[in-house]
Amino acid sequence: MLEIKNLHARIEDKEILKGINLEVKAGEVHAIMGPNGAGKSTLSSVIAGKEDYEISKGGISLSGEDLLELDPTERAHKGVFMSFQYPVEIPGVSVTNFIKTAINETRKANGLENMPAKEMLQKIREKSTLLEIDRKFLSRSLNEGFSGGEKKRNEIFQMAMLEPKLAILDETDSGLDIDALRIVSNGVNKLKSKDNAVIVITHYQRLLDYIKPDFVHVLFDGKIVKTGDASLALELEEKGYDWIKEEVNA
């Protein structure tokens, strides 16, 4: 599904990604871990198409289509979804109206008519129940006055409604208490299928107690230096990242 080959990316004069190779197949969950400054959020931003970064070498494709030729909106329409660390507040635009617009714009880009109102309402009810979201929450302005947990839950709701091929969760666990973490993680687990894939970017193993990865990758100094199964996250939790540095520098 997602294929990244020898990806190099920089911002201004600083090279951050220094040759990323990664393949994510449909039905898989991949966790990317690493110390601060390793390039984790840069990688997610580059996949999503954030324009601050210059791609100096390599490529990214989704289902065989070159993503680097597409702008962020086009990538979203092709099925790339990114949950941000710090979701933006949009006063005056309700959660429901925002998601209706997003869905219909995606349908329009793919040559489909707007989703019928009855079908949209049914889907909103179904997904809000799945994620334990109070209906009153959906009439509030997008992220305005939301707690950290509410913002993250809202992003998972958007993911549920949009049904992307590839979901990138960039430090979704940041600032969440245990209850919010459980609800968000349960939502992600319920939305997994054989037709989509998830990339989870996190500093901590605790999120992976709830969202079980098929693969764990360690990003260090702009490169993936180690890959393993879920047990690698436990090892990182126990030992920290110093032993990875020692291995890389050996």
Write up this protein.
It is a single chain. With 250 residues, the protein is of the alpha/beta class. It has one domain (2-249): P-loop containing nucleotide triphosphate hydrolases (Rossmann fold, 3-Layer(aba) Sandwich). It is built from 8 helices and 12 strands. The protein has helices at 40-48, 72-77, 95-109, 117-130, 148-162, 178-191, 231-239, 242-249; strands at residues 2-11, 14-24, 29-33, 54-62, 65-66, 80-83, 90-94, 141-142, 166-170, 197-201, 215-220, 223-228. The strands form 3 sheets. A 6-stranded mixed β-sheet has the order 6-9-10-3-11-12, sandwiched between helices. Strands 2-1-4-5 form a 4-stranded antiparallel β-sheet, covered by helices on one side. A hairpin with a 2-residue loop joins strand 4 and strand 5. Helix 3 runs parallel beside helix 5 (148-162) and helix 5 (148-162) packs parallel to helix 6. It is globular and about 60 Å long. The two termini are 34 Å apart. The mean pLDDT is 85.
Keywords:
250 residues, alpha/beta, Rossmann fold, 6-stranded mixed sheet, 4-stranded antiparallel sheet, 8 helices, 12 strands, 28% strand, globular
Mean residue pLDDT? 85
Question: CATH homologous superfamily - what is it?
Answer: P-loop containing nucleotide triphosphate hydrolases
Number of domains: 1
Note the main sheet: 6 strands, mixed
**Percent range for β-strand residues:** 25-35%
Radius of gyration: 18 Å
Shape designation: globular
| Second CATH tier, the architecture | 3-Layer(aba) Sandwich
CATH topology: Rossmann fold
The total count of helices amounts to 8
In whole angstroms, how far apart are the ends? 34 Å
